[in-house]
Amino acid sequence: MSNYLLTIAYDGSGFHGWQRQPSEKTVQGHLETTFSRLFNRDIKLNGTSRTDAGVHALGQRASFDADLGIPTERLARVMNNALCGCEEGGFALSPVRIIKAEEVPEGFHARFDCKGKKYIYRISCGEIDIFRRNYVYHVNDGKPCILDVDAMNEAAGLLKGTQDFKSFEAAGGTPRESTVRTIFQAKVMAAGGEINAPAAERKPTAPAGGRDDEIVLEISGDGFLYNMVRIITGTLVEVGLGKRRPDEIKKIIEAKDRAAAGHTAPPYGLYLKEVYY
Amino acid sequence: MSNYLLTIAYDGSGFHGWQRQPSEKTVQGHLETTFSRLFNRDIKLNGTSRTDAGVHALGQRASFDADLGIPTERLARVMNNALCGCEEGGFALSPVRIIKAEEVPEGFHARFDCKGKKYIYRISCGEIDIFRRNYVYHVNDGKPCILDVDAMNEAAGLLKGTQDFKSFEAAGGTPRESTVRTIFQAKVMAAGGEINAPAAERKPTAPAGGRDDEIVLEISGDGFLYNMVRIITGTLVEVGLGKRRPDEIKKIIEAKDRAAAGHTAPPYGLYLKEVYY
């Protein structure tokens, strides 16, 4: 018996989230069905993050125990071939891709051993682009507007450190013992790279084609409450639009009340980028 | 009774093409159902191009006669609001967008009065990007490769003018009297603009986020045979990969035989960009 760890990217727009559900198409369900058929045995995945419907992943992780009888270095390719075969029609590529498959020590668990995660959130302040409708949050109902990136970045900085983020937790998630979390890093960047960096030094940051009208929030921490990144994004967008001052973040945190924070940004601008072990 | 002309953009990936079908979701069917309900009368659209399943549009046109009792300048907004309402859930934006709605003289017909069309085709020679899987053609099975853009552009140039394009016609389309067409312009560009243009002068050409690993074919003409742009693209890709010499295009045209041309590129890299009247 070997223990495997997968790094997985997916376009969440056609899925009802990660977690297996009896009657909805989910990423976990899709992978377990495909792999169980491929290897002719029951494969059960332990995913790191239960991403919501519409949320994407660039680096989701999932571990599983199995005796596959196949060299580990061939695993990702075999899995990706099977995933493409699951698509109807000859042309379409799979919305899920195994980036990496590796063997890990016995007992390693993709969720329990997770030390932290990084998410990114893509925001557009330009006109509605129907081809990005599932991949970025068009603020201001898709009417071009100006977002104050410096103010957003100042507000984001106040989220760093170990604090009680109860104000940024939506109802309906798994009950948690504590709402204290540590945010390692939180920054807001214009598409193409760090704000204020000379143009020549900017690097693409957005996963699916960062554009001039895009702003990206990058946030990492030891854990996130239910909808926390989306509520943080909604609040930062209100700062960017001038509806809130950057230093209101402090008062929002102190309030320990969901009503003090801003709106919940939609799922489809959110990407699970990286998991730390 | 007024005669209206719509300019329409759509993400074709969720549709079985433009043309209304009894049991499949099509763009025409979706628009006619939405507008008939919105205006409480039977709306029938005359679309310019019957785009295939998976093909996108940046500037499809459709005309219709109706007595709407609404100022024309408000029409696009009213239609777009109705289209968004058709989507399930509160968040998702519509995959179809009315770019422009205008009044045209009595008797004007979006298809019969069409003088020509421009298509673009997006090709990626980079690694598979699952977020672009419905929007570009990943050549070489998504394994990074080099496409000789100069050779492709040389081959594209040989398509220009009035010629018999029988070799570039797929079976199964509407029967045509003649397979002679006039190609006004055909060029292949690296993403970001014209090939060999200085970086600073390059402009974005791809509709949904042109990237460094992308190549775009832009082709305009007075009309196109069934699958003609996709067969041209497949043939140019074979030139780019070094499997054919650029000047083979002449022999392919002379052959008047589909078997002489290259493979048919998939639908999802193709965009109807513009219609000429």
Can you put this structure into words, describing what you see?
The structure is a homodimer of 277-residue chains. With 277 residues, chain A is an alpha+beta fold. Chain A has two domains: 103 residues, Alpha-Beta Plaits (2-Layer Sandwich); 161 residues, Alpha-Beta Plaits (2-Layer Sandwich). Chain A is 21% helix and 26% strand. The first copy, chain A, has five helices and ten strands, in the order βαββαβββαβββααβ. In chain A, strands 1, 2, 3, 4, 5, 6, 7, 8, 9 and 10 form a ten-stranded mixed sheet that branches. In chain A, a hairpin with an 8-residue loop joins strand 2 and strand 3. The longest helix of chain A is centred in the first third of the chain and has 14 residues. The radius of gyration of chain A is 19 Å and the shape is globular. Chain A starts with a strand and ends with a strand. About 9% of the residues of chain A have low confidence. The interface between A and B is medium-sized, with 30 and 31 residues.
